[in-house]
Every structure is written in structure tokens, then in C-alpha cells.
């Protein structure tokens, strides 16, 4: 008689229950009392490497804003869990349309977004931003921004890349010159939820 238990020795059994944030590298580590999932991105609080895991019903402490639009600066190797709640509410579908980032309508992306500043090191470095967002339909927009002001559709941009896959996306940028990018996490239907973001450089 064929039994399910016979399969245990031959293949891993993965059970997914509810909605669980996985680290962007695909690992899912159990929570511990030492995990700091409400990360703000100071020197002592960025979780470089493993984001751990967080259930969608868990409370994530909203990060404090560095400026009117930027939450914090991020760099190669950073990996963290955050939420779009209490983020800036400056960008809508009209701005993304103006930059030719993606096809949207003006009544989309009306909720709060999180925006992170990233300084590309140049030298032919390929940078990949990995978003994991199983709790809501959050999109990843990576914008090259050379202005002193907060991003606005009234300003032109040199580059805009997007990741709009449901549940998470990867966006890669390659460059020879040092340049500033804004990494934006935004909900297409105004969702405000938690997410994981990782930055890898090679």
C-alpha cells in the first residue's frame, strides 16, 4: 500500500500556511526573540543578510523618515523587513506614467510608498534589488534621480525600471558611473503592507 510517509525519505515536504514573508533569497528562518523585524536603517539596525520571516498579521514598526520623501539610505548587502505604512504619499500613477516606468492610471498607487536612496558604485557593478511582498500587491520601482528635490513627474529622469510581479520582483541595474537611485515600494491599489527588500551587488 502506498503511504505518504514513504515519501519523506525521498523528497522534502514544504507546507505553506497563511501568508508568510520569506527572506528574498528564498530562505524562511523561524522567528526568534533576537530578531528585529521593525528595522530602521541606521548603522546598528540594518539586518545585513538574513531578513528572517514575519507573518502578515505580525506588527512591523514603521520606519522613521529621513526626509520628506526618503525613508533611509541603503547599500550593497542590506536586507530587511519593513512596511509602507506611514511612508510618504507623494507619488501616484501619474508620476510613474510621466517617467515611462510602467503603464498605470492616475487613480493607482494612491497609498503611502517607501522610498530608499541608493548610491550606485559604478565600475560595471550589477546591482539587484529583490522585493518579497506576499501580503499585498506591492510593486518595485527603481528610479535614477539626479535632482535635489523629491521625485516628481514634473522632472525628467534618465532611467526607470520596474518590477510588477505579484508577490515580489527583482530589478537589476548595471552602471559604469557612480549615480543615485531611488528604490520605491508602492501598492498599485493603495495597499499599505509589510515587505522584505534585499540589495545584492556583483
Provide a brief overview of the structure.
With 202 residues, the protein is mainly β. 3% of the residues lie in helices and 32% in strands.
Characterise this structure.
With 202 residues, this protein is mainly beta. It has one domain: Sandwich (Jelly Rolls), CATH 2.60.120.380. 3% of the residues lie in helices and 32% in strands. It contains one helix and eleven strands. It has one helix at 93-98; strands spanning 20-21, 54-55, 72-74, 79-83, 114-120, 125-132, 138-144, 159-163, 168-175, 179-187, 194-201. The strands form three sheets. A five-stranded mixed sheet has the order 3-5-10-7-8, with no helix packed on it. Strands 4-11-6-9 form a four-stranded antiparallel sheet, with no helix packed on it. The termini are far apart.
Amino acid at each position: 500500500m502506498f503511504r505518504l510517509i514513504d515519501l519523506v525519505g525521498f523528497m522534502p515536504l514544504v507546507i505553506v500556511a497563511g501568508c508568510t514573508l520569506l527572506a528574498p533569497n528564498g530562505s524562511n528562518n523561524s522567528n526568534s526573540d533576537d530578531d528585529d523585524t521593525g528595522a530602521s536603517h541606521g548603522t546598528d539596525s540594518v539586518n545585513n543578510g538574513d531578513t528572517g520571516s514575519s507573518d502578515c498579521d505580525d506588527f512591523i514598526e514603521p520606519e522613521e523618515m529621513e526626509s520628506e520623501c526618503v525613508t533611509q539610505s541603503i547599500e550593497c548587502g542590506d536586507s530587511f523587513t519593513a512596511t509602507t505604512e506611514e511612508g510618504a504619499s507623494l507619488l501616484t500613477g501619474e508620476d510613474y506614467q510621466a517617467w515611462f516606468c510602467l503603464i498605470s492610471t492616475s487613480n493607482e498607487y494612491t497609498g503611502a510608498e517607501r522610498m530608499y536612496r541608493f548610491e550606485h558604485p559604478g565600475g560595471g557593478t550589477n546591482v539587484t534589488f529583490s522585493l518579497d511582498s506576499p501580503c499585498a500587491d506591492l510593486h518595485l520601482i527603481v528610479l535614477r534621480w539626479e535632482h535635489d528635490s523629491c521625485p516628481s513627474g514634473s522632472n525628467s529622469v534618465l532611467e526607470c525600471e520596474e518590477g510588477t510581479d505579484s508577490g515580489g520582483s527583482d530589478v537589476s541595474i548595471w552602471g559604469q558611473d557612480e549615480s543615485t537611485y531611488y528604490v520605491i515600494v508602492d501598492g498599485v491599489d493603495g495597499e499599505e503592507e509589510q515587505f522584505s527588500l534585499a540589495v545584492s551587488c556583483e
